[in-house]
Specification:
The protein is mainly β. The chain contains two helices and 14 strands; from the N terminus they run E-E-E-E-E-E-H-E-E-E-E-E-H-E-E-E. It has a six-stranded antiparallel sheet with strand order 4-3-6-1-9-12. The protein is globular, with a radius of gyration of 17 Å. Mean pLDDT is about 75; it is low at about 145-175 and about 180-200.
């Protein structure tokens, strides 16, 4: 299981929107608090045709000063075990994450935190394996005490390896009043492939 983390500073936040999708399943936290209540996001889809994305209002999760956005990424339907015979890699061999956090300050200025080379990556999370069909493997020695879990997550991290791909389009649930995210570079851990042609 991959874990991505981006630390950033913010102050005087009026509104904050987080746009997120993945080839795989993701769960995001900001400052140790879960983002949204969508389980198994971004949802099942035919990855050859479309990928849903989610928009979250995360204003209340942010604080003045240091903040951290952390995302756990699992195989899901993208490359996990599927069907009666447990076939894997139905749509690809490497999970991918695409995220953008837009912070609107009280003075009207906008700060953007997006997936780029400044993110850190680790596969040393307590959850070593997670699959819709084959279950989860938890390495209990890596689970911090409850007191430490209440603080922002800190983990051993390495730098991401950027790819050259760009998302061409995103489709998702239509929600009124929410701005659409622009296309951003897609980043992976660089474990099995060096170049991803596009997210779709």
């Amino acid at each position: 299981m991959d874990c991505f983390r981006k630390a950033f500073r913010a102050a005087s936040i009026k509104k904050a929107w987080l746009y997120m999708t993945a080839c795989g399943l993701y769960e995001a936290t900001i400052n140790g608090q879960r983002v949204g209540d969508f389980v198994r996001a971004p949802g099942i889809t035919d990855y050859r045709k479309r990928i849903q994305y989610q928009t979250y209002d995360v204003t209340t999760l942010l604080q003045d000063g240091e903040n951290a956005l952390t995302v756990q990424l699992a195989d899901g339907w993208y490359r996990g075990s599927c069907g009666a015979w447990g076939l894997k890699n139905q749509y690809g061999t490497e999970t991918k994450l695409l995220a953008q956090l837009e912070l609107t300050h009280t003075d009207g200025s906008v700060q953007t935190v997006a997936t780029d080379a400044g993110w850190d990556w680790s596969n040393d999370d307590p959850i070593r394996f997670a699959d819709n069909k084959d279950g989860e493997v938890l390495y209990a020695n890596n689970v911090p005490p409850i007191r430490e879990r209440q603080r922002s997550q800190t983990i051993l991290l390495r730098r991401l390896h950027p790819t050259t791909s760009r998302s061409r389009s995103m489709s998702g649930r239509k929600q009124s009043g929410l701005p659409h995210p622009p296309a951003r570079p897609c980043w992976t851990s660089g474990r099995t492939s060096r170049v991803i042609r596009n997210l779709l």
